[in-house]
Amino acid sequence: MPIDPSAVIAATARIHPDAVIGPETVVGDYCVIEADVIVGRQCRLDPYVHIKRWTRLGDRNYIGSGAVLGTDPLDKSFRGERSYLVIGNDNVIREHFTISRGTQPESSTTIGDGNYIMTAGHIAHNCRIGNRTVICSCALVAGHVEIEDQAFVSGGVAIHQFTRIGRLAMIGGLTRVDRDAPPFFLYAGCRIVPRGLNRVGLKRAGFTPDQIDALKRAYVLLYRSNLKLHDALARIEAEVRTEHAAHLVGFIRNTKRGICRPRNALSLRED
Description:
CATH architecture of one domain: 3 Solenoid
Oligomer: single chain
Structural class: alpha/beta
Mean pLDDT: 96
């Protein structure tokens, strides 16, 4: 049966016969759920939520009023082919947030587990959002962006397409992110610049003082030593032999857009 008998559906909701609604899910007034949608168990959809076709929603997700999930991509090359929005479990997506499905046929926008996504923002086509991230109100995430686990994106941040934000990075409010932001660090400024370790986030994530000190050493080598980038990475590998430093180096070596750098220093020369 597409709608589980234990689901609670408001009389004013409109659910396509081909949609699947899981056990104990609550669908509020005036919600619209289109064909080829799957909503998992124990989800809560507040009034006026619209879930468009080819969206997959896992278990125990809360969706605030006016949110629209699975919108057509804001991409002029889109031709209407089938693509997906896939959302995991235990996410909070608050009021009036929109998330697009993929552009290319059979491609996906993916949201992991345990994310807290606030109001009135947008995640565009083909993004990959990890687990336990925070994306604050009015953040704009362009197409093909990757945000790793536990990253924190503050209010009003604008993230350029194909940019990556690393694990446990924190982006300050109103920052324009046009280069990759390596993991574990704090970033701010009208145009993104590094500002030190994300100490609060690291402590909340359970990092020990020794682990934090090791990342501080990596930060100094990367951003304060006036080294060429490949030399800084080699020094980190030789002198900071931890799993988190290895993740940092791997993230940087896989950059395609380049990483953000200080605006008032000659560090991170790539020549």
